[in-house]
Task: structure prediction
Amino acid sequence: MRYLVIVAPLLAAISAGCSSVPMQSSTSAERYQAIDYEKIQLVEDYAKRRAIDVHWVNYPTRTYISSASAKNSAN
Result:
């Protein structure tokens, strides 16, 4: 029982640390983030209908993936 009390928090800390590290994909895809203007507009329209003020701290972003093959076919 004592062993579980010592090991359980240690395992939780290690697994939380590993999950926060971004994983690199093995494919030749390039990822980039851009501000999600569609989501901003939806939230602000919703808030406007209910007379709520929205103050963005961090704008929502969307991750896009562009593959190397798509770049080569464009050239």
In short: Residues 28-75 form one domain. The radius of gyration is 21 Å. The chain is about 50% helix and 20% strand.
